[in-house]
Amino acid sequence: MSADKIGCGFCSKKRRVLNAFELKIGQHISEPGRNKLKYKERKHVLKANYFHHAIIADIKHRTDYEATLVLIHYADVRGFKNGSIQKKEEKRNLKHDEIYTIEYNYSKYTPKEIVRRAKSQIKKGDGKDTVTKDEDEDEDADNHENQTGTIESVFGNYNLFKSNCEHFATWCVLGTQNCFQFGEKRTILLISFIVFALFAIIILSILRLSNSRILEMLTNIPGFAVVGDIIYHPYLIYEFLELKRLHNNKSVCSYCSEEKLYILLTKFILFLLSCSLSLQYMIITVNDPLVPAWPVTILITVIFLIRSAMPFIQSVVKDFESPLTVKSIKVKQLSDVKRGEVIVFRQYGFKHFTIATKVTKSGKISLVHYNKSCLFTRVIEEVEIKLSDKTVWRLDPRKMTVFLPEEIISRVQSRKGEKKWHWRSNRSDHVCYWAVKEQLHMKYYKPKNNEETEIATKSEQKIFSSLEVETMVVHIRNETEIGDVVQFCVNNGTFKKGVGIIIEIRNSKKDPARHKRTFQLSLVMQAGKTITLSWIDIDLNTDTVKVKKFHPVHCNTMEERKNRAIAALFKSDNQTVDNKFKLVEFCVLKE
């Protein structure tokens, strides 16, 4: 490992394993925790209170949906402080076991080094906590490795708060201990506290306390707000110093560091505003105790709203988070820009993402992006800019699996004319990510038409893994196929929306030249006890189509889905279907 290598877990992504051949040695995986695990049969969803984490040390055997894995993780955990790091051979069957891989843009160590670090923390029977370094492994040292070539013991017995399975797995990959589940739980607890406070105010009103008593209680709130701000101020300083420490230790990438700094600045501004309002109120009441009631009420409400906004800042910022969390490089000269690259510049103070389609010798760059055509409408267009007029960056794609430049340009140009901009889910950065990123896992969605032997799983109960994996927005025609379950929302003169099974796809009669973006879907749909067949005209520049993606281990083949949909349609023509009949389940789920 090189000393300047960055390890960042803040921009990591969790992805469901569709096929056992996606699993690799040295991967960080997570699974639903077995304690109080529930399978909701009506929705075919597996619900867990927490996730367990492990490192794959070896893979002994596997087929498409089964695998025998050698895992290093905290095993035999009982309570909050029992359990140790062990290496165990365990069997997994994707029909029952829901496995996720944690994908890192910035991993500090190679898979081989990750396994070596994981093995170093296994407790030995002779009491030694270190493992001698193999001769063929990397000779670089890190902050936990001494001069004799051994890695010092960092983890002891299991501790929920300081030394749990996620702390261990992230340390193996990144070199630092992180537990991102705690951050999510903390936000939920804070929101719950705010909701509880609102209920408490309602209960006080129900108790019919006198107006003077309620006012007296409310007028004390600014004083408590000041005390809270005094306590909160050191916490903000601690967060800033912690961010600085992570940056100095190369434990956070530049993108995540910038994002976290913006969050801290927003929190600090809200903190100053809350302090100033509280202090101003206290000064006014000292000088004039007979202040009217209505300004007091407004001021207290504003303070309460400001204080309540704190827990929601993180979730709001998440909505603006770009999927392109890779390093940006400043463009110094025209030759630095290549066709098919993601180009970034500032627009109204915000980062704006585009795809370069042409670079001319005159210093102009042709870009495809969401352009603001009028006040409330944005359209994907191809425009030209001069390099001399703007400060421009290009994204380093080495951390991503990307299409070839010509394919990237073809994909993004196919979406020209689209008018579906959305501030949360379909901005220019989302368009660029779709055009650039090659989704290698998509090939595993196609169900295998073979019989597999049932093997024992770690679960004593015969529960099943979740059926639905994700809902994917369709941007070009070849992202749909016969047998898919689709949600559509179209407005071609008359507004229509619904869910159906595709049994046929045709070119559009209105605009056959734009066959990638305009087409017709023949859908079998259910409305109560009636099954119907409808032809839907789709124009992806204005209409929205989403494909529901299901785990292939539970699903029929696409051909079988189509045949079942037609059979359900024929059955409905002859007789009314049962109240409990569900078309999607009938077509998709294996019997």
How would you describe the overall organization of this protein?
The protein has 591 residues and is α+β, with helices and mostly antiparallel strands. The protein has four domains: 13-178, no CATH class; 182-319; 328-436, endopeptidase domain like (from Nostoc punctiforme) (endopeptidase fold (from Nostoc punctiforme)), CATH 3.90.1720; 470-588, SH3 type barrels, CATH 2.30.30. Helices cover 31% and strands 25% of the residues. The protein has twelve helices and 20 strands. It has helices at residues 111-119, 165-174, 180-206, 211-219, 221-248, 254-287, 293-309, 313-319, 405-413, 428-436, 558-574, 583-588, and strands spanning 13-16, 28-32, 38-40, 45-47, 51-62, 66-75, 84-93, 100-103, 328-330, 342-347, 350-359, 364-372, 378-386, 392-395, 468-473, 485-491, 495-507, 518-527, 530-539, 544-550. The strands form four sheets. The protein has a six-stranded antiparallel sheet with strand order 1-8-2-5-6-7, covered by helices on one side. A hairpin with a 2-residue loop joins strand 18 and strand 19. Helix 9 crosses helix 10. The protein is globular and about 80 Å long. The two termini are 50 Å apart. Mean pLDDT is 82; it is low at 126-143 and 452-461.
